Structure formats: structure tokens, C-alpha cells
Amino acid sequence: KSKQAPRPALPDLLPDVKNIVAVASGKGGVGKSTVCTNLAIALAQKGYKVGLLDADIFGPSVPRMLGVEDVPVYTEKMEGRDLIVPVENYGVKMLSIGFFVKKEDAVVWRGAMASNALKQLITDADWGELDYFLIDFPPGTSDIHLTLVQTVPITGAVIVSTPQEVALADARKGISMFTGEKVNVPILGLVENMAWFTPAELPENKYYIFGKDGCKQLAEQNGYALLGQIPIVQSIREGGDDGQPVALQSDSITGMAFARLADNVV
Ligand code: ADP
Known about the structure:
Blueprint: E1 17-24, H1 32-45, E2 50-54, H2 62-65, E3 75-78, E4 81-84, E5 87-89, E6 92-96, H3 103-106, H4 111-123, E7 130-136, H5 143-151, E8 156-161, H6 165-179, E9 187-197, H7 214-222, E10 226-232, H8 234-242, H9 253-265
Parallel strand pairs: 1-7, 1-8, 2-6, 2-7, 8-9, 9-10
Antiparallel strand pairs: 3-4, 5-6
Helix pairs in contact: 1-9, 4-5
The structure holds adenosine-5'-diphosphate (ADP).
């Protein structure tokens, strides 16, 4: 719907992958990894083949959320090449930059080092055939992001934000990183996370802790889709901490919210 110039052609890094979806936020702490992990599981539950690359070099949290924090990663020889074997849980194949670097080291990485490491996790791993390959981007808009966007043939980007103005301001910057003239990655839509809170004892009430409909308005103003509004729910936080994301409970109210989000991304 938005007016964007055609994209420059990129080398086909993952010929057996149908869709590469960037999940980005701009601001950190808005729930990007939570949304990305639950979206991956919801897509897998619908029968799609799903891969997830945790590219958040500053705080890789997907291994914990997927319950595979301490799983050893190994390589296998395939057609004369050593390929990293993604870890699989809940139907999602996953590699995290956190498997390969210590957090303390990553913060002093130069852009090129991080970019090269991430590219290796994409091209030197046995991802196999996938319908959806989600990339959990690091927060911010650095040269690491630009390199990823300029070298990986991303099908589209999902932008996660809270309705809060400071988060939306960063989300706008995140959007322009994808829509910039030289990259032109389509924006699949926005996800409003932490959209409201409903206390158990007052199930009819919605409290708009971070503001109301901020993402919805940003989406409407720019002609982007609002892919979903996810409330603040204790089980979302707990599911992430325990390595059992709520999307696994696809018949719970919160699980269904992620299932609908997956439907809107497909
Ligand atoms: P980011 O990837 O943007 O840095 P995270 O996904 O790590 O953010 O989320 C930050 C914190 O907020 C985590 O503790 C997570 O469990 C929690 N969280 C995220 N989304 C929700 C939500 N909708 N309801 C409750 N807690 C959430």
C-alpha cells in the first residue's frame, strides 16, 4: 500500500527459504524477542516450516525463551562443507548469536565483526527448506542493521513497538531503515505490544499503561497494516522465562492472539 521504489536485486542466500521476515523494533525492551518467538511457534503450529535467527547481539534471549539455553550446537559435513546444525524445539529451528559469543564480548564488537558472524549463521548453517525464516534483529539502527538489510534478501519486515511515544519514535526510525531508497524492504505491518493490561479481578477493564492505540495510529497514518495488539499478560512474561512460550497454548486467549498475528503475517 505504501509508495516504495522497487528493490535492488540481492544474491539468493537461502534458495530453499520461501520468506525471510525481519522482526525489528527500534527501541529495546518493547517485547520484540517475545513477539518473534511466539510468532515463530504460532507459525509452526499452523504447519509451516519455521526457522528463527536470533541476531540480537546485545541481548540474545531466544535460546532461553525456546527452552534450549544449554543445548550444545554442533556442525555436520554436507557436500564437503561444515554446516552449523540449528537447534530445534517446538517445531522451530533456531540459531542464536548467543550460542557463539559471550555477551561481554559482543558489546565491544565492531560492526563488521557482528555482520560477518550473523551472515555466517545464515549461509553456513543447515536451515533446509523453510516457509518462514524469522530474523530477530538487534534493537537500534546501526551499521550492523544496514548491512543485514542490504545483504539478506528480506521478504518483509514486522515492526514491534509499545504504544508509548518514545518507542514509536524509534519504531519510525526502524521503519525508515527498511524503507530507505537503497533497500526498499516492504513493511508487512506493525505489532502493538503491551497494548493494555487487564487485572484478573477486573476482567472487563483495560488499562492503557503505555498509552492507547499508538501503534494503531502510526500504522493508519502511514498505510501499514496493524498485524496485532498484544496486551500485557503475566503468562507471556512467565512463558518466556520458563522456556515455554504462551503460543504453545494455542487454545488460550493469549495463545490465540499470537495465532491471529501469525495469520496476519502469512
Ligand atoms: P526486546 O526483545 O524488545 O528487548 P523482550 O522480548 O526481551 O524485549 O521483552 C522484554 C521483557 O518484557 C521480557 O521480560 C518479556 O518477558 C516481557 N514482555 C514482553 N512482552 C510482554 C507482554 N505482552 N506481556 C508481559 N510481559 C511481556
